[in-house]
Specification:
single chain, Metallo-beta-lactamase, Chain A, 6-stranded mixed sheet, about 25% helix
Amino acid sequence: MPQEIMTITLPLVLNWGGVNCYLVRTDAGHVLVDTGGSNKRKELARRLESLGCGPGDLRLIVLTHGDFDHIGNAAHLRRRFGAKIAMHRDDSGMAERGDMFWNRRKGGALIRMLVPLLFRLGRKDRFQPDIYLDDGDSLKEHGLDAKVIALPGHSRGSIGILTAGGDLLCGDLLESTKGPALNAIMDDPEAAEASVERLRGLPIRTVYTGHGGPFPMERIMGGDL
C-alpha cells in the first residue's frame, strides 16, 4: 500500500486561520506530522479516530518546528497513544521550557507581547523529545519511507519531511493561504531564502505547508516566490 497523506486542519485561536497536521498512513501504521494547538484537542482526537488512527496505531509524532500551534498536543498524544516524539534539537527548548522565543532572535516588541497572550504551552503540555532529528535522517525504521530536510529560517530547528514519492511537508518555511509564499514570520530571512533555494534542487512533486493548501513544486520552480 502506498503511503497516504491525510490533512487535518484545525482552527487557530480566535479563528485566525488554520494550522495543518498531516497523518501519513503506511503499511506499518501511522505517523503524525505536527499536532496543532491545544485549543482544538478534542477536534483533533475526533479526526484521528475518523481516519482510523487509534491507540496502538500511531508509530511516531514528528514536529516540523517548535511553535505552539504545531506542538500543542504532542505530549498529550504521547500519553494517549504511546508514540514517540521527534523534532530537531535546535527547537527542542521551546517544548521543554514553554518559550516560543527560545533559540530565536528577539523579534519585535509587539510580537513578543502578543505571542504569550495568544499561544501558550502549559506545564502539562511541555515535554522533552524522545528522538532528535538531523538533516538527512531516514524515518524508515518508524515505518515512513522519508527523510528529514533541514529548513532553517522560520526557526533554527525547522525541518521538512520529504517522502520517497516526492511529497514535502515543509512546516512553516512556506505558506499557501493566498498562493505559495514564504511564511510571513521569519526569524532569519537569509536562512529562509537559502532553504527555498535548496528545495529547488530536490526531487519534490507536491509541497504541503503548515498553513494553507498543497501546491505543485512547479510553482516554486517557476518563480512564484
